[in-house]
Amino acid sequence: MAGTDRGDLTRTAILALLGTVGPLSRSEIARELDLSPATVTQLTKELIGHGMLEELDLKPSRGGRPAQRLGLVGSAGRALGVKVTADHLVLVDVRLDGEVLGSWDKPHDPAAPDALEHLADAVESVVREISGVPPLLGVGVGVPGSVDDQAVGTVNAPTLGWQAMPVGERLRRRLHLPVLVENDVNALAAAERLYGRGRRHNDFLVLTIGRGVGAAIVADGRVYRGARGGAGEFGHLPVAPDGPQCGCGARGCLEAFVGSAGLLAAAEQAGRPPAERAELPAAADRAGRSPAERDGGESLGAVAELGRAGAGGDPVVRAVFAEAGAILGRATAGLINVVDPEVVVVLGEGTADWPLWQEGFDSALRAQLYPGRRDISVEVESWDDTSWAQGAAALVLATPFDAAGAAGEQGRLVRARLIGAAP
């Protein structure tokens, strides 16, 4: 390997270390990466010169001179994150250190013949708006489906009606920027690894609940993608062969029981149809939305109504959530038994009602866990609609810390933009 390549990899390793564990002294960097102090001094000097690192406070010493700590410079770069849903786009402008500088919400119909052109139009308009300082490193896109390769970005997403959709290629051709595309839950896991609880863990699970159910598996600090980029389709774990039909076409999937549509169906079977369900389609029609958009908005709005009723003490609704929580808990226990994570992080729109889920989830989870794993921590994080898009931005922002090269050629272009070189 050429010396310059080795130097680039070592610079990336230094950025990766500071990006995942926070500020460290030069001697701590040398120890963690098994580098000579002279090498660390030289490379960190270059990174400071590029505006990527800065000297922070002095770290107290037990004896001798206090050590100067180094940290990432958030203003060294920014990324645009895009979350594609069944009825709209959420876009966020995020700095290298995770600070959100701005957000946008735009209508979108993925079933339209010109869906990709509309997506490119929406992204391009925001790119023009945010051009300047910090420099834009690239665009990350999160989708509810499988993606062949982040750097290629061909999407199969049944919930969007997309098959072999060339999202990455179309956006790169329009924007002339690096573009990374990934399953939305995997993107959230990348954000957790950079800025969340994943900083402290090399092996963890991310579960999402809301309109659907998803999972991301982080093993040895990397998101496991599988052979075709489709790992983590937790919502399609078979639960009961004679269960309700799932949106994927099969029967009895986990998502058919505990996704938003499953919760609403269970509430109706229990004799309590949500009051708001009949009102939403008419309002959606007046807004000119497609049937797919109406279904998505109807489900989430009606589940929110269910949650309010449950929080108010409605026993039927509380029983529905508790049963869904128990089904989810048993399925999660199976996943934990297979992959053996250190911690489980729960995210998604459904976490707003987590106290209702928890009544059934905790006991079912612990009962099914393999001995020795029953004390695993399940951590629920706060949520808002921009969180998905922040995850997508993390695809780009994690690229300088990506020693495994998952981002391919697009990752090289991101790193080139970060250090100010022409791609």
Automatic annotation (TrEMBL):
Protein name per Swiss-Prot or TrEMBL: ROK family protein
Feature: compositional bias, Basic and acidic residues: 286-297
SUPFAM superfamilies associated with the record: Actin-like ATPase domain, Winged helix' DNA-binding domain
Organism for this UniProt entry: Nonomuraea purpurea
Residues of the HTH marR-type domain: 10-54
InterPro entries per record: ArsR-like_HTH, ATPase_NBD, HTH_MarR-typ, ROK, ROK_cs, WH-like_DNA-bd_sf, WH_DNA-bd_sf
Coiled coil: none
Chain positions covered by the region annotation Disordered: 270-298
Protein family: Belongs to the ROK (NagC/XylR) family.
Signal peptide segment: none
